[in-house]
Amino acid sequence: MEAHTGDRLLTHGRTVGEQDRVAEIIEVLGEGGSPPYRLRNQDGHESIMAPGPDSVVQHTGCQGKER
C-alpha cells in the first residue's frame, strides 16, 4: 500500500450494516508512502493507523502538497 499526503483512506465496514469510513491522510509516517499514516476522520478526530486488508487508498492527485 502506498499513499501520499492528501489522499483518502477508505475502510470498508466489517459487519453487515456498518458504513464505510473515509479519512484524509494528513501525514505519511512510513518510508516511500508506506504505513503508518496520520489520518483526519470526517468528525475531525486525528489518529495514527496502519491499515489492514479492508482498507483502500483513494489517490487525489494532491501528492506532496501541504494543506
Automatic annotation (TrEMBL):
Q: Where is this region: Disordered?
A: 42-67
Enumerate the spans annotated as DUF1918 domain: 1-57
Parts forming coiled coils: none
Taxonomic superkingdom:
Bacteria
For this protein, the record's SUPFAM superfamilies field holds: Cell growth inhibitor/plasmid maintenance toxic component
Protein name (database record): DUF1918 domain-containing protein
Report the source organism: Streptomyces halstedii
